[in-house]
Q: What sequence folds into this?
């Protein structure tokens, strides 16, 4: 794996997990907003290899040449979907968001789930940053060998 490939993987991770943190913060900010529907990020792998092909490559490489292969790929944001679960109905006639029967629907955001998602996204963001830091350090050391 080249230095630029590793930097690109780290950069993609920073973008995706930064967007995950942004969505979690928007969901938390709208906990008390009537009719707000929780947004869920869809994160996908950009690697085109199947699990079976990666395992076969590892088997051949490990027992044949003694080296482990690397999978070239990264992560990407495939989109955002709305959580299909419904919030509770509360009777509030006269509220601007009330339906014809006087009910409003509360937000379906669970603060514990959102905080957990935000922590996971933060740790993934930090891991992506560590990839970029280590790659830069390796590039610096490789450049120092040549001089």
A:
């Amino acid at each position: 794996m080249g230095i630029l490939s590793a930097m690109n993987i780290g950069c993609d991770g920073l973008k995706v997990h930064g967007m995950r943190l942004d969505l979690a913060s928007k969901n938390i900010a709208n906990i008390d907003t009537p009719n707000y529907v929780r947004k869920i990020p869809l994160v996908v792998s950009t690697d085109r290899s199947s699990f079976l092909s990666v395992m076969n490559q590892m088997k051949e490489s490990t027992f044949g040449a003694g080296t482990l292969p690397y999978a070239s790929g990264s992560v990407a944001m495939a989109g955002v979907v709305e959580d299909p679960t419904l919030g509770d109905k509360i009777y509030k006639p006269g509220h601007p968001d009330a339906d014809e029967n006087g009910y409003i629907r509360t937000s379906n955001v669970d603060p514990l789930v959102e905080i957990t998602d935000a922590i996971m996204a933060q740790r993934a963001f930090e891991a992506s940053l560590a990839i970029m830091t280590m790659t830069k350090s390796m590039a610096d050391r490789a450049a120092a060998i040549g001089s």
About this structure: The chain is about 55% helix and 15% strand. The radius of gyration is 22 Å. Residues 111-146 form the longest helix (36 residues). The mean pLDDT is 85.
